[in-house]
């Protein structure tokens, strides 16, 4: 009787094992024939059965089926991204079940190298196939001007391979454009870890995110300091360093860096502007004016240089008039003509700079209003009337009262 019961048990176990093998074969058949839904149903049944649920090969086949479903979905929507993420999750589970070994067994199959362009039946449908397919879909969406989905597919590919610089640069760039700054930092962070990668553009992006978007000049400055150890002669990093020192109110250090930078690049308009700004803040108005003028000499179409030069001339005129108004009546009588002429001279000198600024930015009504006020003070009637007409066209009648 015991033998009979044992025999029946063995028959049952054999039948069950045979049944599960049949289910797996059904999944393999659907995988090869393109009936992916039937294949997925079959492999899910095998994954849930105690006889086959512990075999990493079962889950490898499931991941491969999910990858083919991902590939076959040409809609390339967020649902497609979801299919890819399910496949990635299954590959990761398979790899863990296989002992996390890329060199042997099922673990090696999970990471088998994929060669794009080979016939479909020769592709391994490994996790690397999923990466390449996701990259292709990202490019497709990017070419269709769908930055949001292009980013999602690049990001999926990047989760598979943290060392692919092309994927992570594209993902970081798009994330930054889309305002996904934490995501951008993640992808750019992977690039900064690569030993032989040219990281300059990555540093630029990261500094801008930290200083501008996150309002964290301290962290940005620390990153610039690190970047300069790798790229000590880069002019952009030098300018970032100066800009951040200014934000951090480290004026002496900023001035020192500007002097060093100008020694190597004396016609750099941005450096000349910052040098002038620092001197202006320190009360050296003549030195500041000289630097602002140099920036315009270096580039006559430098808007900021023209504007800052004209604005400082008006400030210097204002200081003279305040000084004049503070004098006693007797002193005012003595110096009013001399000081008044000096103030008017600064107004006259400011005209070409503001005029050029308006030429560079013809719709900038703020500069136009300043220039109108300058011409009015100097009694340049024709010029003032022309500006009044232009401002009325842009701002409407009664613009002076608004």
3D architecture notes:
This protein is 77% helix and 0% strand. With 402 residues, the protein is an all-alpha fold. It has a domain at 295-402: Serine Threonine Protein Phosphatase 5, Tetratricopeptide repeat. The termini are far apart.
Q: TL;DR?
A:
The chain has 402 residues and is mostly helical.
Could you give the topology of this structure?
Blueprint: H1 2-33, H2 36-48, H3 56-72, H4 78-97, H5 105-110, H6 127-143, H7 147-160, H8 165-177, H9 181-192, H10 200-213, H11 217-230, H12 235-247, H13 251-264, H14 269-281, H15 285-298, H16 303-325, H17 329-360, H18 365-377, H19 381-395
Characterize the biggest β-sheet: none
Quaternary organisation: single chain
The counted number of beta strands is 0
Helical fraction: over 70%
**Distance between the first and last residues' Cα:** 107 Å
The secondary-structure element order is HHHHHHHHHHHHHHHHHHH
Just name the CATH architecture of the domain at 295-402. Alpha Horseshoe
CATH class assignment of the domain at 295-402: Mainly Alpha
Q: Please state the overall shape, judged from the principal axes of the Cα atoms.
A: elongated
Task: State mean pLDDT (0 to 100 scale).
Answer: 91
| Structural class label | mainly alpha
CATH topology of the domain at 295-402: Serine Threonine Protein Phosphatase 5, Tetratricopeptide repeat
Q: Helical stretch count?
A: 19
Tell me what portion of residues adopts beta-strand conformation. Answer: under 5%
Taking Cα atoms only, what radius of gyration do you get, to the nearest Å?
A: 35 Å
Report the uncertain regions.
1-19
């Amino acid at each position: 009787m015991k033998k009979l019961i044992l025999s029946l048990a063995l028959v049952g176990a054999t039948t069950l094992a045979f049944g599960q093998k049949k289910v797996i074969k059904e999944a393999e058949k659907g995988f090869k024939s393109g009936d992916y839904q039937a294949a997925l149903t079959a492999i899910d049944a095998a994954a849930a059965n105690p006889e086959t649920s512990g075999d990493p090969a079962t889950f490898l086949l499931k991941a491969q089926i999910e990858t083919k479903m991902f590939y076959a979905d040409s809609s390339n929507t967020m649902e497609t991204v979801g299919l890819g993420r399910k496949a990635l999750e299954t590959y990761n589970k398979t790899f863990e079940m296989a002992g996390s070994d890329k060199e042997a067994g099922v673990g090696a199959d999970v990471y088998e190298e994929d060669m794009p362009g080979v016939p479909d039946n020769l592709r391994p449908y490994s996790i690397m196939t999923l990466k390449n397919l996701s990259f292709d879909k990202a490019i497709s969406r990017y070419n269709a001007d769908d930055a949001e989905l292009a980013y999602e597919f690049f990001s999926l590919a990047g989760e598979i391979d943290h060392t692919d610089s092309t994927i992570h640069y594209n993902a970081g760039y798009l994330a930054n454009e889309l305002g996904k700054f934490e995501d951008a930092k993640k992808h750019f962070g992977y690039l900064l870890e690569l030993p032989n990668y040219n990281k300059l553009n990555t540093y630029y992006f990261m500094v801008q995110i930290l200083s501008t978007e996150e309002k964290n000049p301290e962290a940005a400055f620390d990153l610039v300091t690190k970047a300069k150890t790798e790229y000590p002669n880069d002019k952009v990093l030098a300018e970032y360093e100066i800009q951040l020192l200014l934000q951090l109110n480290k004026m002496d250090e900023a001035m020192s860096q500007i002097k060093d930078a100008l020694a190597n690049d004396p016609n750099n308009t941005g450096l000349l502007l910052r040098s002038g700004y620092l001197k202006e803040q320190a009360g050296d108005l003549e030195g500041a004016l000289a630097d602002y003028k140099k920036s315009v000499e270096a580039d006559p179409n430098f808007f900021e240089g023209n504007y800052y030069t004209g604005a400082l001339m008006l400030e210097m005129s204002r200081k003279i008039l305040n000084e004049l108004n503070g004098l006693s009546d007797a002193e005012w009588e003595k110096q009013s003509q001399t000081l008044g002429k000096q103030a008017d001279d600064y107004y006259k000198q400011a005209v070409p700079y503001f005029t050029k600024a308006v030429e560079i930015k013809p719709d900038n009504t703020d500069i136009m209003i300043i220039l109108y006020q300058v011409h009015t003070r100097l009694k340049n009637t024709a010029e003032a009337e022309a500006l009044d007409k232009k401002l009325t066209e842009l701002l409407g009648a009664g613009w002076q009262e608004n």
